[in-house]
Amino acid sequence: MRLLALFLCFISLTSGSVLAQSGYFEDAYRFSKSTPAGSARIIGVGGTQWSLGGDVSNLSGNPAGLGFFRNSEASISLGYNLWSADATYLGQTKSYSTSDFSLPNLSFVGASPKGPLEKGAFKGGAWGFSIQRIANFSNKFGYYSDKLGESSIIDFYLKDASGVAESEIERRGLTGLAYQTYLINPIAVDANGKPITNPKSYDSFVLGVPFQDENITQKGSASQINFGYGANFNHKLFIGGSLGIRSLEFSSIKKYNEEFANEPLINSSLLENLYINGTGVNLNLGVIYKPIDYVNLGFVLQTPTWFALNEEYDASLSATYANYFFAQENKTLGTENAVSDVFLSNYGLRTPFKIGGGATIFLGKYGFLSADVDWVDYSVSRINSTDFNEAPDNQVIQDLYTSTINYRLGGEAKIEKWRIRAGYAYMGDPYSTSSSVDQSTQQLSGGIGAQFKSFKLDFSLVNQKFNSLYRSYKVLDNNGLNYGPLTEIKNSITSAVVTVGFNF
What we know:
Elements: H1 3-8, E1 18-19, H2 25-30, H3 40-44, E2 73-89, E3 92-113, E4 122-136, E5 139-144, H4 153-161, H5 173-180, E6 185-186, E7 202-203, E8 211-233, E9 237-259, E10 265-292, E11 295-302, E12 306-326, E13 331-339, E14 343-350, E15 354-362, E16 367-377, E17 382-384, H6 391-400, E18 403-415, E19 418-427, E20 441-451, E21 455-471, E22 486-503
Parallel strand pairs: 1-21
Antiparallel strand pairs: 2-3, 2-22, 3-4, 4-8, 5-8, 6-7, 8-9, 9-10, 10-11, 10-12, 11-15, 12-13, 12-14, 14-17, 15-16, 16-18, 18-19, 19-20, 20-21, 21-22
């Protein structure tokens, strides 16, 4: 398991900052978010789908919409994603970008409507199956500066080592690696010059502040297999449900460097590797009601996703000295290396539930306008494990995150066989603590489609913009303020999706 997580969580958090090498509380938010998914049609109208029916996206949106299908449909979507990040540290900005192709949707809906002369309120329904990519984790970011930083990660090591006996320090995660590479050393004699047995205090002969840089590469995605059914009652009330089986893979490589001038230490480099995979399950229940022919009202309840996750973590630390003679150990230091064991652990994650509602107004043969709103409370996510003490992370989840209200607006214009779409979405800031940086997400989308007798073709383009904060490590001063390096990141994600659907 990530040993550093077990003690970083005891340090109070600053405003909405995300800590590097942090604990499992990061997973609670990372694996709860979702990106625009489903068909290009729904993506093009801003993701509004709580009250829209007759689209394959209903399988992961509002399954009641399956009841609108009068014909069976098979569809496939192809996607391209470009993630750009501009990271600013000490007034200097570094740009990153990463891209990938994806298969955001593969689906089949089998419709079984009743004939117009058949009696009864039940007018048939449709079942469906889909595989949808609901989250993309692939990203690169980091920072650099040719200005001296305000602290060193050695400051963190020293604070974390305080009170830990030398006989136990090597088992102290990254701080243990710092001890093995002589970045921190025990105070082995008291004020009177007498030896201390198994000392619990540490210092460092490296006293200055360094130049700093870090690069983080993240990869992976989350996909969900959906099985659902929607029923039609008198063409007025539509009720549906779906089962989602979610799978994810996530990997992260972090390389943090410090370079010193006029110090015994020339530079140090910390490398961390993390890999997570697992599966989860959730339920989705929905209702759509038509009070009048040209209005749809929708309601959806999405349960938490209950994940079973596995992780693998290791770290290595290298420190290069200027042939420094360390008298305490009677050793001349050159390049010193330390490598952790490979840590394996299993843990569970329960994501928040979601409640949403929406309305659609149909403009006859000219198109429609649709709006959604939903509520998510990220602070109720929970970690559980028998491999480590999850209580610190769960406390951080409660303190760090909050509930959000998310809005989506969209519309479609019909011109004969053509469809022109546009949409806007706003996802609220999930962090509870005050911050000068708004970490909400805004999304603009648009698209075009063509409807033919037996098939349809849709294209959408969507752009998400949001800011985030990143800390490589955390060190508190005497006033409780964190003076570790803080990087502000401006993110932009552009996705293009093409969907081909066949009716029969």
